[in-house]
Amino acid sequence: MTGSYTDDDGNDIEWVNFYERLNGIGLGHGHNLFEGRLHLSGNWDHVQYIRHDDWYYSRDNFKDLTSVTDDDIAEFVNALYDGWFEYVYETVGNTFYYPGREQVLLYFYMNDNTVVELRLFEGGYVGYQPLGWYFVKIPGEAFDRIFNACQ
Known about the structure:
Low-confidence stretches: none
Oligomer: single chain
């Protein structure tokens, strides 16, 4: 489901909500969403991040992701495509979102002027904000390289 509204500054904002198995669209592999719907690979212009505290307290402290290469970002996106979605409320527990777990928000500024916001949690978890408790788990260096560059 999609929609739009005008924010307090007069900007037109578009939003999208995803529902599991809506009209036959399922979320199994990461590629179902991140490739098939959001088209991340090769379609982004630049990537920024913000630390969770800055995001939480609405501090405009976005930073360019400059300490990694485009190849590092492409490797991260490919790992995201290969990962499986999991419902972390069941697999990790209801303490997943609790304070103390390191997290950052990653923003892909796309060539079509849209922005894809991802939430990265320590341990390899990548979520798309509208999906709440559903995350793709990415093991290894592809995740760590991006996550550590945001610290």
